[in-house]
Each structure stands twice: as C-alpha cells, then as structure tokens.
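Help needed: design a sequence for this.
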C-alpha cells in the first residue's frame, strides 16, 4: 500500500494508485481484500469468508456471556492458520489466558459425542495448589494424556500467539499502536489484534464524558486498523440499561453511537434461554435448562454481508470454548427481525 502513515496526508493520482495496484499484484502482495477466517463457520459464512484488513469487529455481551472465550477461540483459530495474533488484555492475566487455551486444546470428542479433556477449573486448582510451582504444574501437564495433547497442539502456533497484559491506568492507543508497529517492522505480514476490552483503553481526556471518550477511542482504533491494514476485534461492555435489558442490542453498548458508526461488524451475545420468545415457545423447565447451554450471537451490523441475523453456539465453558459447529436459531426470539436467508 502507498504510505499514508504519519501526521500529514498525501493525495495520490489515479495513475499512482493504479501503478501501485499493478506492482502489488505482480509481487503477489495484493492484500486489501485478503480474508481472515474466524474459524467459526456460522460467522464466516455470513461475512463472506472472514474479516478483512482494516476491519473493526466489535463483540458485545452481558457479564459472563463468554466474550473472552469467543475472542480467544477466534484468535487461536487465526494463529493456527498462520496469522500473528496479539491479544491485549486489560482484564485477565497472561497466565489465565494461557490456561484457557490449554483447556481448549486438551479436548477430544468421543464417538458418543461426549467431550473429554482438562477442565479449566481443575487447571486453576492445580496451579493454585499450595505445594505446586508453575514448573511442577507444567511437568504434571506433560505427564497427562490430555495435557500432552494440548501442549502438542499449542506448539503448532505458540510462537505466533502473543498475549500482552495492559493497564487501564496507562495503556492507551499510542502504546497499542507502537506494539503493532513493532510487530509489523519485525516482519509480521498478517496480523490480528484483539482488545479485551475497549472501554478499558486508557485515555487522558478526562474532561470528556464517558460516551465521548469511548467515541475517541473507537475512532482511534478504526484508524489503527486502516492505517496498519490489520483486522481488530474489540470486546465492548454494555451500559446500565443493557445490563438490565432482557435482550442486549448494539444500542446498549457503552458509547454506542460512535461504536455503531465506526464498526464494520458488530456481534452481540445473549443467553438463549433469556431471549427465546415465551409466546412462541412453551418454555418447560427441561427446555429452559437445555437452552441455557446455548448462546445466541446476533450480527447487528455487517459491512461484509447481511445484518440482523442470529446464530447459536453451544457453550463448553468447562473447557473454555464454544462448540464451533452451531448454526441458525430455530426458535423465534424476542425483538426478532424476520430475515429470509
Ligand atoms: N475456571 C472456570 N471454570 C468454569 N467456568 C469458568 C471458569 N472461568 C470462567 N468460567 C465461565 O465461563 C464463562 C465465560 O467466561 P468469559 O470470561 O469468557 O465471559 P465474559 O463474557 O468475557 O465475562 P466478563 O463479562 O466477566 O468479562 C463465564 O460464565 C464464567 O463463569
């Protein structure tokens, strides 16, 4: 791409732009429309195969909905496909995210459909047990069949998956941009950035309202995605009304007007049992329990395809993941917008 970084801007003639396009196509470096599949089939097929360079993907959901789990799973799927991942986390420690990946990778599906592996809670207990050092815990992992499976799978992408612990008191967009630049100058050709989560990004514009501050941050994030030609996934928190609402929508995300404008893709997560229409579905206790095992993902904005479409994935939170094989939601939901695919 012609250089547009820095504080000044340059106007390129159509000749220059066409020459640049031609040069990059000869170099096999025509990357503008290169696709970054998320590895979640139900999502990829609705966004024309995956994210693109410069895309800003916002992921919202209530507390404990599985936002970190989903973001981490997408990041891991990309790393497996050869993408360099930087996961910037304001909330969880590097160690916690690594344990979540180990749990996810340790799983194996038995012929009867049951899933076995190392439960996340057992991994925590193991690491926290008074007499076990981290190196002792690792040795134990190597001695366990599921632990070995996880370590083997992670070995395939471990050097491409980076986790950075950020501080909401100091890690601002400049710090994040410098980290991205460092990786690009070290040779990263395909980079994917995850921010967990957007409203925690430090901003010194304390005089601004929270809404305006979020607006500035999301603008900056979109600029970063475009100028460095990387796709970015940012988790976003819900406002007070959203936390109380039966169904969380994109207008409930904190700083929603700016978020709605800047994002290329907005997906909002809701517990299925909360948002199934009670008029249409006779929700017996048994059905309610069954549905509580699922999360509905609503594509609320989609510059890559059709929006206002829902899909569902089964939770496997014991192993810090979703079963990636889910698809359309058969039951009517509250606030439904009918869409024929
Ligand atoms: N050690 C664990 N064992 C079992 N379940 C866990 C463990 N840690 C987290 N979970 C569950 O996994 C679910 C998803 O967690 P996750 O952190 O992905 O959600 P989130 O939407 O990012 O949460 P938050 O809003 O708190 O950031 C939560 O409901 C949580 O209770």
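Sure. Designed sequence:
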């Amino acid at each position: 791409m012609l250089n547009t970084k820095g504080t000044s801007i340059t106007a390129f003639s159509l000749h220059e732009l066409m020459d640049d396009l031609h040069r990059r196509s000869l170099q096999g470096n025509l990357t503008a429309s290169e696709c970054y599949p998320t590895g979640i089939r139900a999502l990829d097929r609705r966004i024309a195969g995956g994210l693109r360079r410069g895309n800003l993907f916002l992921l919202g959901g209530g507390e404990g909905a599985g936002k970190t789990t989903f973001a981490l799973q997408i990041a891991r799927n990309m790393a497996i496909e050869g993408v360099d991942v930087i996961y910037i986390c304001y909330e969880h420690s590097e160690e916690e995210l690594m344990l979540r990946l180990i749990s996810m990778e340790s799983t194996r599906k038995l012929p009867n459909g049951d899933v076995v592996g190392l439960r996340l809670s057992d991994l925590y207990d193991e690491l926290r047990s008074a007499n076990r050092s981290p190196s002792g815990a690792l040795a134990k992992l190597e001695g366990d069949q599921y632990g070995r499976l996880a370590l083997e799978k992670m070995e395939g992408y471990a050097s491409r998956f980076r986790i950075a612990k950020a501080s909401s008191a100091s890690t601002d967009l400049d710090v994040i941009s410098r980290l991205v630049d460092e990786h690009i100058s070290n040779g990263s050709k395909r980079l994917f950035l995850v921010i967990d989560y957007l409203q925690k990004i430090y901003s010194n514009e304390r005089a601004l309202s929270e809404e305006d501050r979020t607006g500035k941050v999301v603008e900056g994030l979109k600029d970063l995605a475009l100028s460095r030609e990387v796709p970015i996934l940012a988790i976003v928190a819900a406002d007070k009304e959203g936390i109380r609402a039966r169904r969380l929508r994109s207008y409930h995300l904190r700083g929603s007007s700016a978020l709605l404008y800047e994002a290329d893709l907005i997906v909002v997560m809701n517990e299925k049992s909360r948002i199934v229409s009670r008029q249409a579905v006779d929700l017996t206790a048994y059905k309610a329990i069954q549905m509580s095992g699922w999360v509905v993902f609503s594509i609320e904005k989609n510059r890559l395809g059709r929006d206002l479409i829902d899909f569902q994935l089964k939770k496997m939170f014991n192993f810090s993941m979703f079963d990636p094989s889910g698809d359309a939601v058969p039951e009517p939901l509250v606030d439904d917008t009918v869409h024929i695919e």
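The domain at 34-115+155-323 is CATH 3.40.50.300 (Rossmann fold).
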